Amino acid sequence: MKRLSRLALSLVPAAVALTALATTAGPARAGESFAELEAKGAQAMLEAADKLMNHYPTQLWTFKMTVKPGSGEPKTLRFKVWQKGGKQRLVRFLDPGEVKGMSILTSGASVMYVYSPQTDNVRRVASHAKRQTLLGSNLTYSDMSTEDLSTLYDASFGEKTDDALWLELKKKPDADVTWDKLRVKVSRKTTLPEVIEYWDGGKRVRTQERSRYEVMDGVPTYRLVTMRDEGKDPLVTTLEMESQEVGLPLEDSLFQKKNLVRGE
């Protein structure tokens, strides 16, 4: 059980990281058309995509996450995520048993706490640790706090097709980010990212793909996100959205540190 617990704990940050990356809900586009945003420039397009993904008063999701190593058995976990104002986020694991009750609380880009019921301990994740690759996953701690890409990266236009366009993102000089460069494929239909490529040192390191587009709770949503490493026998993480609610009442007290040790 001790070995399983360590493995489960290593997957907890991966789930939160992918949740932060894969906030895939977006309202039916209103106001400026895709062509109008394109005319305003790449940064305006990126800002619009950020707004569609992150700028909601409150959200609640249930996710199923599966981590598939290049060799070995896959691991599957289920968890809920409560989010308020795009910055406060609480994650609580539902199953399997070795992770049930584990919780993570984030507030903006700099504050993150993890609670393990097995040790009954709450610890804060140090800033220097956020650049480390997570044990057993293809994600980093810094992914957990990633919110609006437009505040971290400068965008320019790349390849354009009839159904999408690519944004080339270069990190801002003062941005504290893991990835030097991102390439984002934005759908002309939804103004939402369909593909995100992560580059470091001139090499593509991993790719995120979003699929199963449908309307949930009145909101157009990509229900399936896949994160894949580059190279042979890649590690693959999939995140399936089982349910979502938007605009529900969430008290600020839900996002307090002391709430980590409580159940729902």
Walk me through the structure.
- By secondary structure, the chain is α+β, with helices and mostly antiparallel strands.
- The chain is built from four helices and 13 strands.
- It has a 13-stranded antiparallel sheet, with helices on one face.
- A hairpin with a 3-residue loop joins strand 7 and strand 8.
- The radius of gyration is 18 Å and the shape is globular.
- The two termini are 25 Å apart.
What attributes characterize this protein structure?
single chain; 264 residues; alpha+beta; outer membrane lipoprotein receptor (LolB), chain A; 13-stranded antiparallel beta sheet; 17% helix; 42% strand; globular
Brief description of this entry?
This protein is an alpha+beta fold and 264 residues long. The chain is 17% helix and 42% strand. The chain has helices at 2-21, 34-40, 42-54, 141-144; strands at residues 58-68, 75-84, 88-95, 103-107, 111-116, 121-124, 153-160, 164-171, 181-187, 193-200, 203-216, 219-229, 236-246.
Architecture blueprint of SSEs:
Elements: H1 2-21, H2 34-40, H3 42-54, E1 58-68, E2 75-84, E3 88-95, E4 103-107, E5 111-116, E6 121-124, H4 141-144, E7 153-160, E8 164-171, E9 181-187, E10 193-200, E11 203-216, E12 219-229, E13 236-246
Antiparallel strand pairs: 1-2, 1-13, 2-3, 3-4, 4-5, 5-6, 7-8, 8-9, 9-10, 10-11, 11-12, 12-13
Helix pairs in contact: 2-3
Count of alpha and pi helical runs: 4
**Class by alpha and beta content:** alpha+beta
Second rung of CATH, namely the architecture: Clam
Q: What is the C-alpha radius of gyration, as a whole number of Å?
A: 18 Å
